[in-house]
Amino acid sequence: MPVPIRRLCVALTLCCALLAGSTACGASSSDQTRTKTTAEAVALDAATPSPSTSAERQKFAKARFVANAGLAAGATYQWIVKPWKAGKFKKGAKGRKLALLKAGLAGAFAYNRLKAAQKNAQGDPTLSKALAPLTAGIEALKNLPAKLRKGDDNAAGSFDDIINKVKEAGQDAGAPVKDQVPSASQLSGG
Q1: What is the pLDDT of residue 71?
Q2: End-to-end CA distance of the chain
Q3: 108/100 Cα distance (integer angstroms)
């Protein structure tokens, strides 16, 4: 974990001041050693980040869960559910290849964000319990692009069902999830 530059500057300034003060007073070599050890300890304490409390970790876990699940839900609705309801995935439909390409990217992105949300949920006991039954369903989403290419009409529906269950689990755990449509750069970047 990177250390903020401000802390490093403070530690360096403190070390220099202690070192200059001890040499200016004509301290003996044992005093200089003790001063250097003290300065090193101060610098080490300043460079070591303090851990956050469990309440802060849980708060951040919920916030990250909401963000990741919201992005997954937005991508799913925008590029999988809407085209599916419009019939874009049926064989012979106009724009099918482009719709399948977008759905594949959105499916991979949503799967990635759902896995991240699942990992975030482990930081909060309530969310962890709420999402535990959905683990197998989230893993099953990995095969969505292949199912859509084969013309499986239930694939998009199952994706939508899992997203809705994740949103319900978040709502029950006090972390309501709202759809957030990701940008094209987010979608292509994963």
Answers
A1: 94
A2: 23
A3: 12
Which residues, 6 or more positions from 81, have their beta carbon under 8 angstroms from its beta carbon? Answer: 156, 159, 160
**Side chain identity at 162, as an amino acid letter?**
I
Q: Measured between alpha carbons, how far is residue 45 from residues 31, 36, 82, 106 in Å? A: 21, 14, 54, 45
What's the pLDDT tens digit per position in 19-78?
555 555 554 444 444 444 555 554 545 444 444 566 666 668 889 999 999 999 999 999
DSSP for residue 88: T
- The answer to whether residue 177 scores a pLDDT higher than 70 is yes
What span, in angstroms and rounded, lies between the C-alpha atoms of 155 and 157?
Answer: 5
Residue 92 backbone dihedrals phi, psi, to 5 degrees: 90, -5
Whether the full predicted model's pTM is greater than 0.85, yes or no, is: no
What residues contact residue 181 under an 8 Å CB cut-off, 6+ apart? 74, 75, 77, 78
161-178 CB burial, b ≥16 within 10 A, e <16: ebbebbbebbeebebebe
Structure tokens at 60: 């951040």
Place of tokens 């964000």: 113
DSSP type of residue 81: I
3-state secondary structure 99-142: HHHHHHHHHHHHHHHHHHHHHHHCCCHHHHHHHHHHHHHHHHHH
